[in-house]
Amino acid sequence: MSGGTCEVCGNSANQRCAKCHQTNYCSKDHQRQHWKVHRLQCSPYRVCQNEVLGRYLEASRDIQPGEVIMKDTPLVLGPRQVTVAVCLGCFSPVTGSYTCTQCGWPMCGAQCQKSPLHIPECQLSRERGSKIQVSKFGEENQMYECITPLRCLWLRDRDCNQWATLMQMESHLEQRRGTEIHDLNQVNVVDFIQRYLNVHSFTDEEVQNVCGIIDVNGFEIPAQATALIGLYGKACLLEHNCIPNTTRTFDAQLNIVIRAAVMITKGSHIATSYTDPMWGTADRQMHLRTTKYFG
Ligand SMILES: C[S@@+](CC[C@H](N)C(=O)[O-])C[C@H]1O[C@@H](n2cnc3c(N)ncnc32)[C@H](O)[C@@H]1O
Q: Which GO MF terms are attached to this record (predicted)?
């Protein structure tokens, strides 16, 4: 028995979706009818909120070990802030032997130049009037710090749903003001976008805000030639626990797949670890304090 009202007709319901335990129906017929819509939202968790954690996920039923809790597609993929020069299509390190014929950023070749991932910085970099000149390869290159922020900012005028999802993410902007990372981003990202790329359509605050969003919510994806960062609208809601009850993997399309590592009982919080379990306690605490603003 479930109580509540039928999702289809609004009459009193006595059946409930067995997968999420959250959606009610008056009959099997109405449940079948609704499945096309419901399957896109059906999940074994609900989004909750409290003063300490902000938004977090709670199991809406018992979740068995190994069960997939969510598979989430990336909103934004981009290089890490600190990186060597990489191809902006496939993220492999580059030597500068090929550059995008439109904007001048180094790429692997013509195939990678066509990657949809490269569109934001390619179009925005053209506002400069002359091609981008990259001359440092094989060592850390600060020019790349603007790429993932630009890919976020690009959504503002292109995809209002994705932009709204991004803007709901925690940036801790107020706590970042006056810190070293905020000052560095002012020079390497804000000033670079405005002075080198000649892009003036984003305010300092908007750029700093997406830098915060990337630091607080970004998942490092290790499975490429160089690590990259992914932002995921649902997976970003997972809270931190040093002993997480989930595992995470990335599939070939770089969707994030979150599975239960243990039995997660109904009502329990669903957590991942924001730190490397191999680090010592002091390093983990420092990482959480300086990049996630708690702990
Ligand atoms: C990736 S976001 C998680 C989603 C976020 N709560 C929201 O409302 O968008 C990370 C932020 O959530 C909060 N958070 C996550 N786990 C926490 C924990 N174990 N203790 C305190 N705050 C936590 C911190 O504010 C952290 O910077």
A: N-methyltransferase activity; protein methyltransferase activity; S-adenosylmethionine-dependent methyltransferase activity; zinc ion binding
Residue ranges making up the domain that contains 30: 1-42
Q: Indicate the number of domains in the chain.
A: 2
DSSP label of 197: S
pLDDT of residue 224: 64
pTM exceeds 0.90, yes or no: yes
Q: Ligand 1: does its nearest atom lie under 6 Å from the Cβ of 170?
A: yes
Q: Which residue has the tokens 């509540």?
A: 4
Atom of ligand 1 nearest to the CA of 55: 8
pLDDT digits (tens, 9 = 90+) for 247-278: 999 999 999 999 999 999 999 999 999 998 88
Structure token digits, residue 6: 């039928």
CATH label of the domain that carries residue 272: 2.170.270.10
Chain CA centroid to CA 277, Å:
21
Token pair of 49 as six digits: 């909120």
Give the residue, out of 72, 239, 243, 270, with the most ligand 1 atoms within 8 A of its beta carbon, to mutate for a pocket test: 239
Q: Is the ipTM of this complex over 0.95?
A: yes
